[in-house]
Amino acid sequence: MDNEIQRKLLRHGEEETEGDLKKRVWIESKKIWRVALPSMISRVCAFGTLVITQSFIGHISNVDLAGYALVQTLSVRFINGILLGMSSATETLCGQAFGAGQHHMMAIYLQRSWIIDLITLTILLPVFIFGTQLYRLLGEDEAIAVSGGYISLWFIPFIYNFVFTLTIQMFLQAQLKNIVIAWLSIFRLAIHVPLSWLLVFKLSFGVPGAMVALLVSSWFLVAAEFIYIFGGWCPYSWKGFTVAAFNDLYPVVKLSLSSGVMVCLELWYNAVLVLLAGYMPNAEVAISAFSICLNINAWEFMISMGFLGAACVRIANELGRGNAKAAKFSIKVLLGTSIAIGTFFFVLFLVFRKKLAYFFTDDERVADTVEDLSLLLSLSVLVNSIYPVLSGMAIGAGMQGIVAIVNLVCFYVIGIPMGALLGYLTNLQVKGIWIGMIGGIVTQTLVLLYLAWRIDWDDQVKKAGERLNRFYVRSSDNTEQVSD
Asked: Where are the transmembrane segments (predicted)?
């Protein structure tokens, strides 16, 4: 009888624990999706404007398609990687400040990121000004280099929007207000498609028409974001412009540089592989097909980036609050959700295969090459569902420097050499390059998983507190001096 009672009590305890776990997962999932879904929508729409522009240019000529692919995959990805990486310091600081209740500091962090990013971007403008010479130096085909150089000039006014769109999204995301970015991004895409059709096909403006449509839709988003922030919808976090933003820049630059290196090493990885594809026989087809696959991969990767953003916010918020257990639990839920979605897209891309290519090109040779790469594309999508969450964890905790070293070794010591060997010394060619890319990403994922398992979250809480206190005290003093 006593044994029966004990069994009933044990069974009741297990049911209660299971119910409690389900409730915790449900609550955490709601917090994650509140950040991840708007982030996914905004990133998919933002990248979608670039992909749609490529699609319109692809129907103008194959040379311009390859030229645009070079600019987007090499130059734009190069600049975007630096700015996205350096802006992730804002993501760390704003997320931890919001968790700690230091809302007024968020605007100061945002303005500091604008100063740092504007200076950085202006220094890097020669990448676009001397595009043709750069692509010639890299050994690209003359016609593709000339086309890419022309298109790169059109990208100069476009890239400045990154300074504001990237940082403002992180600023709003940290305070769980990024739903407005999602809606604005949808409107941006809704403007971009008909405007591109009008300028490219109806008015026959060709490449200039496609690029003007890209500029108009991109700066529409920036203008709308300014109206939202300055119009009083962020009363606690935006207190107006302040000269305090110019103070304490060095430690922010230091964190921004480590963030920039970490993200750049990830984004440039694909760019180097496209460059390797450019040296293959029939480079025009190789670059176009590889770029199409990378764009499809990157478009789906925007969904994973939503989980990266959610990981940043959830980890940063919980560390700012001093809750180490909640940060650790959030990572588990994030990984489970992201892997499930990655598996869905893995199957989806396997099913559609060749049909995906015709969205970008009418060339049968390019479409056949894309079909041949479809299995590797699907595998990349599956792997993409894991490591962005782990990278987001690192950004939220302010551990960008460690991950930068991991990325350097896994991508540039393992992935690229492996891809070059398989691409040039075997009959695999472009497929071999992609296998090398996957090898580097898988290695990085395994290392980050081990890092996540070994992290002392209580120590990370302590470090977050020290970081916030250091910036808070100095900035408060400076603000008081300005007021006087």
From this structure: 114-131, 151-172, 179-200, 212-234, 255-279, 285-313, 333-353, 373-390, 402-426, 432-453
Q: Which amino acid is at 349?
A: F
Task: Give the mean pLDDT of 79-98.
Answer: 80
Q: Which domain holds residue 51?
A: 34-478
**214 within 8 A of 49, measured Cβ to Cβ:** yes
Mean pLDDT (the chain) is 81
Q: How far apart are CA 464 and CA 433, in angstroms?
A: 40
Structural domains in the chain (count) = 1
62-70 and 283-321 are packed helices; what angle lies between their axes, rounded to 10 degrees? 30
**Would you say residue 284 has pLDDT above 70?**
no
One-letter identity of residue 422: L
Could you tell me how many helices (H) and strands (E) the chain has, helices first?
Answer: 19, 0
Residue 11 in domain: no
Length of the chain: 484
Residue-wise pLDDT tens digits, 102-161: 888 888 889 988 998 999 899 999 999 999 999 888 877 888 899 999 999 999 999 999
Residue 455 falls within a domain, yes or no?
yes
Residues 249-262, mean pLDDT to the nearest whole number = 70
CA–CA gap between residue 361 and residue 414 (Å, rounded): 32
Please give the Cα distance from 61 to 71 (Å, whole number).
15
Residue 269 exposed, middle or buried by CB count within 10 Å (0-12, 13-18, 19+): buried
60 located within any domain: yes
